[in-house]
Amino acid sequence: MRHTSWAVLNTVVCAAGVASVLCLLPLGAQANGFQNFDDAALIDQVAGAVARGYGNMHGYRVQFKMLHESTPYESALMTQYTPANRTCTFFINPKDTSWHSFEHYLQFFEGLPKKVVYEAFFAHESGHCVQFKEQIDFGPVERAQRQELYADVFALSHVERYYPKYRPAFQIGLMKMRSVEKGTPYDFSRLLHKLLGQPDLLTALKVTGPQERAFAIARAVDRL
Length: 224
Description:
Helix 4 (143-162) packs across helix 8 (210-222). The chain is α+β, with helices and mostly antiparallel strands and 224 residues long. It is globular. It has eight helices and four strands. Residues 1-31 form the signal peptide.
C-alpha cells in the first residue's frame, strides 16, 4: 500500500459500496494481471471485485496494467487516476522484490484472513482514486502524508463495513505497519495514531453513502 512514484507523476497517488457489488466477479471471471503473485487466484478475484466495486460507486472506470520488468518502482501495486477519462489505473509490478511487497505486509496482520487483508490493500489503492475523483484536496501542508492517511482510513472503513469483527485487529496491524516507516517519507504513524483516536472516527467509517463517506473520512483527516 505504498506509492513512491506519486512524487514523480503529478496525478498519480498511492488500494464497494453494497456487499453485492463486491460479489459481481466470481473467482476466475476476469484476469487482472496477478497470475504470478502468491495467492494469485485470491488476489485476482479481490482486485477485480473491490477495485471495480468502488469504481461503480464513484463513477469511474478501472483498468489493470502490467509494468515492464525493468521499471524501477518500489511497490507491488500502484494507482493513477486520470480525470480526463475518469479512469483509475492499477499498475502491477510483477518483479517486486522490495520491502514493500504483499508478502511483507501480511506479517503485520498475522491472524487475519488473507481475503480481508487483500481487500483492504485494494480499498487503500481505490481510496486514492476516490479522493481525486471527488476532488478532495488536502492543501499544500503535509499533502502526501494526508493522502496516505486518507487511503489508510478508507481501507479501515472497508474492513469496518464488511468485516467489522476484524476491524480492531486490522487497525492494530495498520499502526504496526506504519510504525516501522521511521525516517522515510511515509513516516506518519504519529498522525495516524492521532487520527485513529478521534472519538467520531468510527461514525465516519460507517457512513453508508459512498460520496458522503468519502467526505466524512476527508473531514476526519482535515481535523488533524
